[in-house]
Specification:
Rossmann fold; seven-stranded parallel beta sheet; 18% strand
């Protein structure tokens, strides 16, 4: 940063899943660095809550869409008036968890998780990389999980959906590079988030075996957002098609 110039001054960044812990941390830091924000939520109720929470940040553009329905995404995107807004960055924080043994995994559940976590992400990239909908360079970052690498008991569909995203970005990094587009993922370990504590509260056993291997402890959302901001910036200009771990040592 030179002088008083803000890192994302006049840059337009789209965040999907904006009401997540990581999304909220990103909003705080990106707005402080001068970014213009487009925020996605899953429904109108979530949008209203987010509007109230972020009432001190001016000029935010909102759109809401259920990511389990990728076939309606483009119509919603365009009807929200976003067609003529050129993006400089896209961060995907959408992710639905799934923990079911194989005897409880029905086709409709698998389809819903894959559509939410994978198909809609691919559809968003198709939508925003059309002509005149982005500025070059465009930087895309998605939030992945250690589950995409290690798997785990009972998380077959969730793990598969995250692994699908990571496999796809390797291909897309090559396809989109000639257009001046980079794409990377941040592979997260256990995050100190509302979702994590709700999961732990629902267990009869309060011990979390993942933290034995994640020896640096629970990861604060701010640490993930710092990595995302690095990948959105020109400081990472030669990084694409990569899965960057912020895993507390889990994958070491």
């Amino acid at each position: 940063m030179k002088g008083d110039q803000l890192l994302f001054q006049n840059k337009t960044i789209l965040i999907t899943g904006a009401s997540s812990d990581i999304g909220l941390s990103l909003i705080e830091h990106l707005s402080a660095e001068g970014a213009k924000l487009i925020l996605h939520t899953s429904n109108k109720q979530s949008e209203e809550k987010l509007r109230h929470l972020l009432s001190n940040i001016p000029d935010i553009v909102y759109f809401n869409c259920d990511f389990s329905k990728p076939h309606i995404l483009e119509d919603v995107y365009l009807s929200s008036g976003l067609e003529n807004i050129a993006l400089d960055g896209f961060v995907n924080c959408v992710g639905v968890r799934s923990r079911r043994p194989i005897n409880l995994i029905k086709p409709e559940h698998s389809i819903e998780v894959m559509q939410t976590n994978f198909v809609s992400f691919i559809e968003m990239i198709r939508i925003i990389t059309k002509k005149n909908r982005f500025n070059s360079p465009l930087n895309i970052v998605t939030i992945s999980s250690i589950s995409s690498v290690t798997g785990g008991q009972g998380i077959t569909i969730y793990s598969a959906s995250k692994a699908a995203v990571d496999a796809a970005l390797r291909c897309l990094s090559k396809e989109l590079a000639p257009k001046g587009i980079r794409i990377n993922s941040v592979v997260c370990g256990q995050i100190n988030s509302k979702a994590y504590h709700e999961m732990m509260d629902s267990k009869t056993e309060q011990h979390d075996p993942i933290l034995e291997r994640q020896f640096l402890g629970l990861i604060e959302p701010e640490k993930v957002s710092s990595m995302v901001m690095f990948l959105l910036s020109e400081q990472s200009a030669y990084i694409t098609g990569s899965m960057i771990p912020v895993d507390g040592g889990y994958l070491s």
